[in-house]
Design a protein that fits this description.
With 248 residues, the protein is an alpha/beta fold. Helices cover 35% and strands 17% of the residues.
Amino acid sequence: MFFCFFATIRFEDSPKPGSTLVADALRGWIQRKKNEKQRPEPGTMIIKSAEFVTSAANKSQYPPAMLPEIAFAGRSNVGKSSLINTLVNRRHLVKTSSTPGRTQLINFFDINNSLTFVDLPGYGYAKVPAAVQKKWGPMIETYLSTRQTLKGVVIIMDIRRLPREEEHNLIQWLAHFSIAAILVLTKTDKLSKTKVIKQQTAVRHALEVEKEDVILFSAKTRRGKDAVWDAILALTNIKNDRREAYRK
């Protein structure tokens, strides 16, 4: 099972997932905005460029560690590709497929020459050959544990499904190594408002996190796009190009 390698790490001395899911930088950024009594700048970036850089199966194939990186992880078919495409206003930067499990390498994308998005292989799809899945664990563990420019991981979950063992293990693994996580529940447009609230509550309770630690998202309606960008900007300290236009 993919991410089974996370289960081999002991977490007795690490904090509960809920206390570390959102990095101090993220909450600190929000608090600073309140203290300064300023309107926060709009989260959505003006995307001037978004380009595929390379695919990698091992550390030697990574691009130079020059820019802050945000990785995207999630079960196959949760809308990971659609989320990334929506964030950068591109329809086909990351290829979407009706067949889950197609992403089998770590894919790097340059955003505005100031940030790198890293698309990790989707997990939990039974039809992916076992031999391929077996390679994914060490491949992703190596990236997450050694990439010095990694600032955080966006964990993507389908709001219609409760978190399973893989999600819990990944969240604990990230918390153990003090890697910030941004929790995003996708496909909210497929549920009624009442069911969205019910499912959001169920997911929060399952993960032991607060309401503000979970972002509701829909690629169809673009709900939550600004919130995801706010979290990314907070973790990467990247200047938002909208700032000057906003002040004017």
